[in-house]
DNA sequence: CCTGCCCCTGACAACGTTGTCCAGGCTCTA
DNA sequence: TAGAGCCTGGACAACGTTGTCAGGGGCAGG
């Protein structure tokens, strides 16, 4: 084994597989370190002839600038973080893609993570992203207390919350009009003659779920319909539990004649239950779903524009980074009721 | 303005908003720099009393370790890159999530980017990720020449291709049995009496599309059915063009009686076209789609397990990083034909 | 021919962290 | 009580890059 006691650090590991550095390129091209840096970054002040020599050395060695070092030196990472509930959910795919496109337009990369609706995991992810010194964060919060972000905000990490507001801190937020959407959906059912209307939604600790519930109640109250406890099922997650909740509403003495499904996951399960059911029950789902128009009957939905949520949030993020945005705001995007048949069924039974 | 000519660098910018560093913590706690490092990393050799003092300083200052610097020093970024076609595509969401979960289990973050099926953009993204010194790459390639990756591979960047093989380089790849799946799908249609079977797929330059086409041809040949040119539509992208292609097959003198749809996007559009069509046409789609079972008739599909693709690829990636995996392999996951009705319609017309 | 200016180039420090190594103080034993 | 060994803590260099600054050479003008 060749001895090299002088450079014990070299023994640490492959160190990026011993990639060539600017120093190596400089040595090979017979120029100074900084000249290589200039060529790599396209800075002016290098003779074409010198530039050519450097470029040759770069190609020969397969040099690629180490952005980790660059980041350390420059203080900006040109990357932003996105924390959401679950990338596999069809609602978040387009949102994530929209954020990515905006980031790309600003020359930034996107790091994302799924919180799986677990507040601890959300915090862990967010802080890991902060440790990486992402320039900004887009967060779809799972928890309701974000004071842990205070030092980060103070340190200048741009942050925008999406879909649900931040808890206990003052931050930018972009949301859908969940209240209005749910109210419209229920009003639509009422307009078609329903009075016994069920609501199946997520835990009310989740902002969107709470707002949609509020919209449901508001529409019922507007129509002077007293809501019975048994019409509401809150906090059910997972297909089996949603299924059971739906069946309870439908197979009781005075069953509901219509249902507002609180999100796309619930909608899908309820569609399944209704398909097996003999009585025709009206349905309005929150969030649009693919192929909803091709089912028999088509599924009436309150649609949010997931991509617009993501785009708006990301654009605000970069405006924060520009420094052109100072005070936190709350932006609400409207929803759209899309009637396709299931919401227009008359009451039956 | 207070003068500070000694430290011109401070003028560069906020530098992460002037976050406190270990040096600041050390000064405040009255200990050495390395001691802070030890506390932060939970290394042994620090008195509980000292540790407590350091921890207090950390909390007071809101210190958070700068992982950029850490990465530079350690040579490992604990992050991996994922390049895919489009995060918004329901096929890639679960795949991406699966990769993320494996990464998380290994303490790594996931950076992802969409190539939008553009080879140049793929290369740009991949190289940007390499410049960040991700430890590994999972790539769903858009291009068919990946020699640009050679220096990176040589430098030790672990790489696994998914869904489609790498072009012109030797690398690990995890794919579905596209050939077999398509052949089974078409054989299924043939078994139900069809002979004039159409195929609508992506550009054959995309590996999956080529393989599925090959499977289609093989099944036809096995059954002794000569394929007519007009039954195949290759390289159509975008809903409108798929729609036109489907209509051409259906509204001609000797129309096809069944269709194999080459991917989930095509399937959805074909379903729409068929819904408007008066004649009953059989359909088998490649890739499962949500609610496929609830349509009338249910959509028969050749299902791939997107999550398994992602999981398998990511696991191989980390085995490469362990050093326990040396020679590139090709892994093929089988597909599953799910009969739901649309594939069992008899020929008509 | 000299002076001065500008252009190109390179030396150097710094970004914030971690690995190495050494110094001191302590305990334990002979 | 002195010596050996251990434990704690800190000084220092290095990771690969970029900003600053100064020096050298060429060219134009006096």
Short note summarizing the structure:
The structure is a homodimer of 349-residue chains. With 349 residues, chain A is of the alpha/beta class. Chain A has helices at residues 15-18, 22-29, 33-40, 48-61, 67-74, 92-105, 119-131, 150-154, 178-191, 207-222, 239-250, 264-276, 306-322; strands at residues 79-84, 109-114, 136-139, 158-162, 172-176, 197-201, 232-234, 258-261, 282-286, 300-303, 330-333, 336-338.
Essential attributes:
homodimer, 349 residues, alpha/beta, 6-stranded parallel beta sheet, 6-stranded mixed beta sheet, 13 helices, 42% helix, disordered N terminus, DNA-binding
Please provide a written account of the structure:
2 copies of one chain form a homodimer. Chain A is of the alpha/beta class and 349 residues long. Helix content of chain A is 42%, strand content 15%. Chain A is built from 13 helices and 12 strands. A 6-stranded parallel beta sheet of chain A has the order 2-1-3-4-5-11, with helices on both faces. In chain A, α10 links the parallel β6 and β7. In chain A, α2 crosses α3 (33-40), α6 runs parallel beside α13 (306-322) and α9 runs parallel beside α10 (207-222). The longest helix of chain A is centred in the C-terminal third of the chain and has 17 residues, at 306-322. The first copy, chain A, is elongated. Chain A starts with 14 loop residues before the first helix and ends in an 11-residue tail after the last strand. Mean pLDDT of chain A is 92; it is low at 1-15. The interface between A and B is large, with 65 and 65 residues. The structure holds a DNA duplex (30 and 30 nucleotides).
